[in-house]
Each structure stands twice: as structure tokens, then as C-alpha cells.
């Protein structure tokens, strides 16, 4: 039984590591620090680096947006990287944000990198550390076939380059002037993870499904309504004809109509107060606004409630889960403890 428990714990640790590495905006590696490229990506659905010609001339140009998806042309829809012929007749999606995986490099002659895939195509972006605030994106092209390489040079490509901010406070007395420099860590977030100074981390990576389906599907409201709702934390999903690549979807009870309510790229967080308000994650789509209240449940409850639309174009939900707690799922220990308890319970029953 101990061997089985050890294997299970090892598997869960590896699973946790894989989930962390799949965050397209932020990479944390023990002993090295954090690489956060959130600030380099545009959030208006366009590429931060558009129509870049490769260093070795070819018949193609490339577009790339770190962290957030963009669309260009008819083929590259909600993607991370796109290859387009110079005459713009041909277009290929060469990587999606949801596939992002990171490599820390070896600290000597190999830079960290982030890799994206789409079907049989692979796009590797080398991350070159620079003290400059000016970003440079270079494309080396396609070699071998369906494998593409680029390089992003920026301060945010450095370990801890954009992971915190430094504020300077000056105190003046009649005799001397003393400069006190303090390091202030600002809130950081993406659709999966929210870190807030003094509170900790809320990580929803463990809850969202990865097969483009909703973790919480066709949830009805407490009061009578003509609609039901689906939601997938952290990752986009599709349902029906109109909810394509969304985070929240409204569905008519007869399943004939679907309406997007929010997309992952619009995610914003509020930490709540220390008294009577809970944290929340918010999404938007055109004029529609969604608020998902995050109710902490140390006991491990998993419940999603839909309160419906009130006022018009405003929708409220509540997610109750251990991962909705500050630091509830921010490390592997909570999962391991659950696995160990389950194994012990199983052993007791079998005995």
C-alpha cells in the first residue's frame, strides 16, 4: 500500500508541474525565479509583433502575441502565432496559447523558451534577457518543415525581470536627506492565477477542463429562467453555434440559442475585503459583464451556482471550491494530502 501511495503522490506532483508550466503568461521555476510576459501581449485581439519577416528571406511573414490570443485573417483565429504568405493568400496557425509549455534553459548558453503547437506545427520562442525596456522580436523561419523558431528580447524575458516593481520613498529632515528604497510586489494575474500581496495566491488551473468543454455545464438559476449557463475556469471552451472559445456561455433551455458572455482574455480579478466581500474573477464580452464570486471551501466542496442576469447584460455566479481559497491550490501539498487521506481510507476499508 505504501508503494502505491508513493507512486500516486509522485504522479500528482508531476501533474501539478505540468499544469504550472502550461500558463502562457507566467513561468515560475525553483532556484531561478519568475518570467512574466503578461505586459508584452496586446489585449485587443491583435498581435504585439505583426508581419515580421524572417532573418533568412522566405515567402512568409509571421505574427506573434505573447500571453494573450489574437486573430489575423480567416485561419489564424484565437491563436498565439501565425504564418502568412507575403501575398497573404496562404495562412497557417502555428501555435495556440493553451498549448504553451516552458523550458528554463541551462543557465549558461541556452536561453529559457516557451513553445506553442497547433496540429503538427511547433513554434519555439527563445527568451533573451535584456536590460532594455524596448522589445525586439526576431523570426528565424521554418527549419525543419513545420517547426518554427523566434526570439523575444526584453527585460521581461529575464528571470524576475517583470515579476516585481521597485518604489522609492524619500524622507527629508532639517539636517539630512535619507533615501529609502523598498521593493513592492504588485498584484499579478492571468485567467488562471491571481497573486495579491499580503493575501497569497488563488489558482484555478486545477478546476478548468482542458478538452474545450465546460467544467460546469448547463447550470440552471435558482429562480425560474429561460436560460442556463456553462463555465470553465482558466481555459476556453466551446458550446453550440455561437459560444466558440469562451469562458462563460448562456444557453436557452431548448438548446436552440447560445450567447457568449465572457472570454478568458478579458479576465480581471478583485481581491475582496478582509470582512464581508469575497474575491472574484470578472469577464466581459462586448457589452456583457460576468462576475464569478470565489467562495472558499477548506472542506473541499465543489459547487457552481448561477444567479442569472440582473441588471441587463450583467451576470453573477458563485464558485465554491478549495481552489477559491487564498493559497488553497497554490502548491501540490493540498493535492498530495488529499491523495494520502484517500489512500489511507482505502487501506482501512480493505483491512
From TrEMBL:
SUPFAM superfamilies: Mannose 6-phosphate receptor domain (SSF50911). Keywords: Signal. GO terms for cellular component: Golgi membrane; trans-Golgi network. The keyword Signal applies. InterPro entries: Man6P_isomerase_rcpt-bd_dom_sf. Residues 1-22 form the signal peptide. PANTHER family: MANNOSE 6-PHOSPHATE RECEPTOR-LIKE PROTEIN 1, MANNOSE-6-PHOSPHATE RECEPTOR FAMILY MEMBER. This is Uncharacterized protein. The lineage of its organism: Eukaryota, Metazoa, Spiralia, Gnathifera, Rotifera.
